[in-house]
Amino acid sequence: MPTVAFTTVLQRFLPAPDMRVAGATVREALDAVFAAHPALRGYVLDDQGAVRRHVIVYVNGVPARDRTRLTDRVGPADEIYVFQALTGG
Fold this sequence. Notes:
Elements: E1 3-6, H1 8-11, E2 19-20, H2 26-36, H3 40-44, E3 55-59, E4 62-63, E5 79-84
Parallel strand pairs: 1-5
Antiparallel strand pairs: 1-2, 3-4, 3-5
């Protein structure tokens, strides 16, 4: 089962614990996390279900290619990282 981890920036606003979840794609893994923590969905995905512009998802340190449908394949030992971009001046 892949592990999904969120940055501490996101954890400041919502509970976002690292979770081992079932799923063969990034979408399936994230959906499993959102089932347990529904409020996270709005921070990570837009109204169309795509990754928000200010968020990036990595699989084993490589940016996910499909930001719209999240079809990147994941294996049981893979790590999915969800980062929220920081802005400011």
